[in-house]
Amino acid sequence: MQFSLILLAFIIVLGGWFFSIYNALIRLKVRINNAWAQIDVQLKRRHDLIPNLVETVKGYMQYEKDTLERVIKARSQAVDASGLKDKAQAENFLTQTLRSLFAVVERYPDLKANQNVLKLQEELTSTENKIAFARQYYNDEVQRFNTKIQVVPSNLVANACGFTKKEFFEIEDKTEKETPKVKL
Amino acid sequence: MPFSFIEIEENKNRVIALILTFLVLFYFLTAYFLLIVIENYFASSQLRPGEAEFFFPPFTHVLSVLIIAALAALFHWTQSTSNLIPRMSMAVGALPIDKKDTYHQYFKNIVDEVSVALGGRPIEAMVIPSGSMNAFSLQDFNRRAVIGITEGLLSRLNRAQIEAVVAHEAGHIAAADSLSATVICSLSEIYEEIFTKLRAGLSKTRGRGVVILLLVFILLGIMNLLSKLLRYFISRQREYRADAIAVRLTRNPLSLAEALKLISKHWRGSGAQGARMESIFILNPKFNELDERENTLSDIFSTHPPVSRRIKILLDMAHLDEKTLEENLKNFRRASPVAKIQFKPDAVVKAESETQSKRWLIYSEQKWLGPFLLDELTQMRGIKPEQWVRREGQEATICAFQDWDLRNLFKKGAEKTGKDEKNSCPNCKTPLQALNYEGTPILKCSYCEGIFAEQGKISRIFIRKDATFSENTKRLAEILINTKDKFRVKYKDSKSVWILKCPNCMRKMRRQFFIYSYPVEIDRCIHCQGIWFDKQELEILQYIFENKEQFFSGKYF
């Protein structure tokens, strides 16, 4: 009698522990999905902004057709990309082409004095920052999740319920991979 | 330091419980003290002299006092937490952003970015129209959050620095200490409101003044005590924590260090509206000796840690020392979010429609104006068929109706000329053009180059320093300041002039000096507070304002 009571209590405690960990894992997973949705929103916003920018800039840049075409191509590639790795790569390429476009804009004083271009440039910069921040948030959440499913004791629950590691949204940007330079 | 919404919710409940308990206790102790004084007073009047005895109130009295105190605390709490954000933002003098303003849009973008970094929590942006440099955050129990900065900060820091400041404020929001600071400020602010209302009432009702005066004194005493005690709740540690979260969000300690350095060197808004709510700002608006010290005493009483210490921690993260930071900041120039516009008629608008580039010059009042595009001429209804015009690049002068392209102008617009309409120039009656000057939306007449600025826009224009001035403007400004004593006499003698109609509300505007020390004549609408500037008046004023150190440093004064 006594023994069965102790056993019952043990089972209840164990079950409670199991479900609490399971719920925590699910909560983390939902947050990761939410973070991913955030990135997607920002990426879409950037895709929508680029045609406007190209349209505004076109008139001034008779001799920079190449740059503009590259941007358009990179954009359509990014829109079509599916899967985490491909997406990251395509967006990377788009970021680079946009940077070269802005470098060209710097050379045209007329463009720099155009409030519309400046506004679009500001919007794009802002969107790019948002992408970076959303990515940062996503990666932080993924890191938390991945840590949680690997450490003892929650790895027992994770293994039992088939949680697998999530992928990071990585970016192969040269400037970002370098160690931050000390400005002297 | 993981922070999640669940933790924030827990924090919120703790904050409510703690402050409410404190309030009840505070009111109880105050009332209990009064009870002892009063009961002893009555008791002693019944005693014979020499029989001094201390008298403690009976239990039933204490209980009723406790109930009254609890009710008062509850009333105080509900009053000060209802409508928390609108009330507090009004108290600091912050306004919602102006969507048409380039700078404000830019600030809104930054706030949105930081909100993404926090995981998509919506944050509102607000701006204090002041030249000081500071930033604040507000939060209420319904998860509404606001980050606000001053115009001065917005126009003097670069993007990364503003982002760092906003991230610091977002750190307060994430850690929910913005909530406690907002509630605490609101609790002491409500007394201020009651007090001003009472004072307004007092000036109306003469007579029973003594009772009200006594009430005012009691209120003042309680208010002072309470706001001093409430300060204990605000730990200076929270600023370090918010700095840490800011670095975590932006991964850029250097910009935050730079921003703090720049803010600490400038006027932070002491004496301005809302400065007494020091605990919601990034740096204390008043320079405070106590803040800059590190000991237990200032740990208890001060709301902000020493700036130098904060900067040092941040610089350690950035692997940099104080000297190089100062060197860097010496030649600090920020990139303006506003396109460089020379003040001559809209180079921008013209550049945009370069394709249809036929332009005309118009002869009016003994001089050639323009050149204008056809579109611009269509907007200027003041142009008459017999007016002399000249095509740009040609010498031949003809009447306007003789020009084929201009002829259509008179056909269509014949019935529209010379009417008083909303948003039309008070001088020329032509529609005003909406433009952005220094990032602020204004209305400009493309014919006489007069400018109409609505209420609140002028301070923005003065604080921002993107415009460049022509030699002519500079010369006129100097002449004006040199001879301003003459104007003063003239102004006293003259009667007020009401000629021009306000483009906004169509009522007459009053002609007056902008202020006495800047004797530029403007027309101010006394209903909507909009100001009409004739050609160049705004630039002259702005030039004087932005160089006021030079003008008023003995040389001219």
Report on this structure.
The complex is a heterodimer of chains A (184) and B (557). Chain A has helices at residues 2-58, 65-80, 84-106, 109-112, 115-150, 154-161, 174-177. Chain A is 80% helix and 0% strand. In chain A, helix 1 runs antiparallel to helix 5 (115-150), helix 1 packs across helix 6 (154-161) and helix 2 runs antiparallel to helix 3 (84-106). Chain A has a single domain, classed as Up-down Bundle (de novo design (two linked rop proteins)). With 184 residues, chain A is mainly alpha-helical. Chain B has 557 residues and is α+β, with helices and mostly antiparallel strands. Chain B has 4 domains: 1-47 and 59-81, no CATH class; 86-187 and 232-330, Zincin-like (2-Layer Sandwich), CATH 3.30.2010; 347-416, Dna Ligase, domain 1, CATH 3.30.1490; 433-551, no CATH class. Chain B is built from 21 helices and 14 strands. Chain B has helices at 5-46, 59-81, 84-92, 102-117, 151-156, 159-174, 177-204, 209-230, 237-250, 253-265, 296-301, 307-318, 322-330, 347-352, 374-379, 404-413, 457-463, 471-482, 484-493, 537-546, 548-551, and strands at 95-96, 124-128, 135-139, 145-150, 359-364, 367-373, 388-391, 397-399, 433-437, 440-444, 451-453, 510-515, 518-524, 531-533. In chain B, a hairpin with a 5-residue loop joins strand 3 and strand 4. In chain B, helix 2 (59-81) packs across helix 7, helix 3 crosses helix 7 (177-204) and helix 7 packs antiparallel against helix 8. The longest helix of chain B is centred in the N-terminal third of the chain and has 42 residues, at 5-46. Chain B is elongated and about 110 Å long. Chains A and B meet through helix 1 and helix 5 of A and helix 4 and helix 14 of B.
